[in-house]
Amino acid sequence: MSSAAVFLALACVGATGWYASNDVAQASGKGENVLMFDDFVGAAGTSPDSRYWGHAVGGGGWGNDEAQVYTDDLANSRLDGEGNLVIEARRDGSGYTSARLVTLDRFAFQYGRAEARIKLPKGQGLHPAFWLLGTDVNRVGWPQSGEIDVIETINDVSFYHSALHGPSADGTPWALNAEGSEDVSDDFHDYWVERSPDRITFGIDDAVTGEFSRTDLDPGQEWVFDKPFSLLLNVAVGGRWPGEVGAGTTFPATMLVDWVRVTDE
């Protein structure tokens, strides 16, 4: 599984062109202050708040050799008028379109808790994710930027996956994975990560699902997580990890996001 996770993390390598060089609205500190909150309240068919969210546009081979092309079209990402963000993968002729929403150049944070209440789609070939990426990726590249996968699932959601990805001294990537066998696509769940100096903890709802620290690394592996990271939400389609899309997979395939919150606790 770790090799598949590495393939996934390479999503950022094929897309460095959509990272800006400056990082804005970065935050760190203590005190349980709300640093960012979006409850996606707005008229149906409108775009999410541009103070927080931009779009990574492109694809068709990004990262894990994924099949989808990411767009900024409202067909692929929009508010539903009921307090949810819709991210929708759609069949487009012989191909697929979807959306990847990013906070880079709008919001980033260093220490604290990032969480999102999400209902995930499932189906052979689907790969939804809520993740974080170091804001210096355009300057240092991946895996030196670091990647924090808060939640990702594939196919029939027979397991969930959280992970850290970072570099070794020779530039090769490493991964630390936390997985469980629960099907979390049944309803909305609160997926979260807490970041403190030299330590990262993952959880779903009230349960801790994994915890990693600098001391867990092997000699030569680098801890690159004590710096600002931005947020990403997307639904990928196909690629080496989930495999080809199944004939029974229903499109549009929809991820619903009730809210996203970052606090400095």
TrEMBL record:
Any one GO MF annotation of this record: hydrolase activity, hydrolyzing O-glycosyl compounds
InterPro entries, alphabetized: Beta-glucanase-like, ConA-like_dom_sf, Glycosyl_Hydrlase_16
Keyword terms of this UniProt record: Hydrolase, Signal
Gene3D superfamilies: 2.60.120.200
A biological-process GO annotation: carbohydrate metabolic process
Signal sequence, renumbered to the chain: 1-20
GH16 domain ranges (all copies): 28-265
Record flagged with keyword Aminoacyl-tRNA synthetase: no
Top-level taxon: Bacteria
Pfam family, one: Glyco_hydro_16
Matches recorded under SUPFAM superfamilies: Concanavalin A-like lectins/glucanases (SSF49899)
Family: Belongs to the glycosyl hydrolase 16 family.
Name assigned to this protein: Glycoside hydrolase, family 16
